[in-house]
């Protein structure tokens, strides 16, 4: 019986974080310690990095996820360890896990097998309190807003047109739509409200795109919270609470320093969902890594149709980043599922289904190529992969001139990605023609159509009447020069969770648009995507426990 990810992580003898940070020249006095194995990086140190040269940036993305698993975070960590093994000074910039998926179905975000970041339990649970700070800041704004209504509503806010929602870092479907302020007058103004999961909060998105604390405070002030009775926008700055929100975030804005199982330094900071928000770790952490090490490996959530598209169209645009190489992760198991094989039959050899599923991989490759970037396909090997299936996939890559590497990071850690690391270094030395897919001065609907057609392969986009009305309002307000952040199911290139592979002849439906002005983008909700997930029939939480010695079980 193979060891679980948790058992492997618990066996790791961690090095003090001070020693790990020293490997890349971070002085002890620039670390704010959270025990022996976690720390935050000071802004004094981050500011001093400005004089350092910028290293190479590697983005790890994947095919559309399936129940079979792809191992994107595992590959990111294993690749970072492998680059260090071949003598390249390398750091990793990762996202913080959300408790929603941890206790739900998807799991955490610390990698797997022998390619993990530790302390695994801490990172997947409360870590350094960043999620709590984001939740608190978000709900402080909601409390101030509702108190303003109760205390006389000087700003003439229409309670039926409040756009800002409360949040909680948990999958709780019962909170999607709630009625607040019920009972006596002292309980406030009664109105309809709702909750997003914390990682879908605009506070989270703003944190991850901010340059520093003062920039974050400015972004908080720009957040739209409501409209007045005569249709004028009301911003957080009108409620005069952006300073308090920034105060709550004074520690959360600092990147977290941890280590891999092989004791290489990692910055983990921020974690917006990629199917709802932009799905990337913070600009602050990414830029810090780029000036600390020669190579930075980072990831973007879900497939290239979501996280990578937003990384390249939104994050890189705002942060002035230019990736040097993209790694596209896939597994034979997942490709067979995209080729029509049921999950319970994936252990059976099926070369034809594998080749059929390669259509999904081909579309994500096409997307990366459209951005003008070199790439390597990383095939995350499983013990159930047969020699015939591996050869068929290698032949498919060779016939289509796709650089490819077999990765064994789950079983071997960095040693299992030496070939991948060498190919990535080779690609990073190539010139590339990176450019976003659309211009900011194009109309919102045009930007959405470009993403739908070029990235998803859709024939076009249909806007509901509500979305059309919102487009007109946004144009009047001057918000139409922002990038678009597509909220779409991660399971399909379409907006229908059930359609796998590489479908054609479909259209995308945009049902609602939300201005996320603090983050700096317009969110387009497609299909049936939700900003507050629910728990599955058997949540992962039911298999978790802790004993009298504090030993955790069941956490993956």
Any descriptors?
single chain, 19 helices, alpha/beta, 556 residues, twelve-stranded mixed sheet, four-stranded mixed sheet, 35% helix
| Total number of beta strands | 25
What class, by secondary structure content?
A: alpha/beta
The helical percent reads: 25-40%
The largest β sheet comes out as: 12 strands, mixed
Q: What gyration radius follows from the Cα positions, in whole Å?
A: 23 Å
Distance between the termini: 15 Å
How many helical elements? 19
Low-confidence stretches: none
Principal-axes geometry comes out as: globular
Q: Quick check: average pLDDT?
A: 96
Q: Assess the beta-strand content as a share of residues.
A: 15-25%
Task: Give the topology, please.
Layout lengths: L4 H7 L5 H6 L8 E3 L5 E3 L1 H6 L7 E7 L9 H14 L4 E5 L4 H5 L7 E2 L2 E4 L1 H5 L5 H21 L6 E6 L3 E3 L9 E3 L10 E3 L1 E3 L4 H8 L3 H10 L1 E5 L4 E3 L6 H7 L7 E5 L4 E4 L14 H10 L2 E5 L4 H16 L5 E6 L1 H7 L12 H20 L4 E6 L6 H13 L4 E4 L1 H4 L5 H11 L15 H13 L3 E4 L1 H13 L6 E4 L19 E10 L4 E6 L18 E2 L5 E2 L3
Parallel strand pairs: 3-16, 3-17, 4-15, 4-16, 8-11, 17-18, 18-19, 20-22, 21-23
Antiparallel strand pairs: 1-2, 2-14, 5-6, 6-14, 7-12, 9-10, 12-13, 14-15, 22-23, 24-25
Helix pairs in contact: 4-17, 7-10, 9-10, 12-14, 13-14, 14-15
